[in-house]
Each structure stands twice: as C-alpha cells, then as structure tokens.
Amino acid sequence: MNDRIAELKSQCIVREQRGTNAFDNYMVDRFDTEKFAELIVRECVERVAGSVVRDKGHIPQDPHSQGWNDAVAYAGKELKKYFGVE
After folding, report:
1. Domain ranges within the chain, ordered by starting residue
2. Is this structure's pTM higher than 0.70?
3. What's the CA angle centered on 13, arms 8 and 17, to 5 degrees?
4. What distance in Å separates the CA atoms of residue 58 and residue 52, rounded to the nearest whole number?
5. Residue 75: exposed, middle, or buried by beta-carbon count in 10 A (0-12, 13-18, 19+)?
6. What is the pLDDT of residue 55?
7. How far from 13 is each of 9, 48, 65, 72, CA to CA, in Å?
8. Torsion angle of alpha carbons 43, 85, 79, 12, nearest 10°?
9. Is 82 helix (H, G, I), strand (E, B) or coil?
10. What is the pLDDT of residue 54?
C-alpha cells in the first residue's frame, strides 16, 4: 500500500464512547470510511488534478499562467462535485 494512503487511513480512526450506563461504559476505535473517502478526494484535487490536466495538453504547460490555474481549479471543482465533497 502507498505510504500516503496509510497516512490518510491513520487520520480516520475515531474514538467513540459506547455503553448504556456507567457500569458498561467503554471506548472503541472506529474507522470512519466517509472521512477516508473525503481525504482521498481532497488529495486527488490537490496533488493529481494539476498534473493530469497539464499532461492532457488542454492548457498551457506554464504552471504560472492563468489558463493553467483556471483549468486546475475547474478540474478540482469537478472532482469534488463528482464525489460530493464540499
């Protein structure tokens, strides 16, 4: 597994209190799958969208141009919308 995926996984452990009264009260760790999915989508937007758009040649190769920035922002927005991440 990719080290970055493992790092994102570690951020998704949620400690919850369980039990109905003081006598059977205990803590459990739960893996939050929704948070994991959101972190992956955010990672795609931040790390991958720019290089994918640039490699497809839809925009100028200069990462400092406005066209490049607009295309990356659009790709990121579309990825977030597709996966339902705010």
Report:
1. 3-83
2. no
3. 165
4. 10
5. buried
6. 61
7. 7, 25, 40, 31
8. 30
9. helix
10. 61
> Closest Cα partner for 30 from 12, 4, 5, 45?
12
pLDDT tens string, the chain, 86 residues long: the values are 578 888 999 999 999 888 887 788 888 999 999 999 999 888 887 776 666 666 655 555 565 666 667 777 777 787 777 777 76
d(CA 81, CA 23): 45
Q: What is the residue whose two structure tokens read 């369980």?
A: 18
The alpha carbon of residue 25 and the mean position of all alpha carbons in its chain are separated, in whole angstroms, by 33
Q: Mark out the alpha helices in 1-86 (DSSP H runs).
A: 3-10, 33-43, 49-56, 66-83
Residues 6+ apart with CB under 8 A from 12: 31, 32, 33, 35, 36, 39
Which pLDDT score, from 0 to 100, does residue 2 have? 75
The per-residue pLDDT for 61 is 59
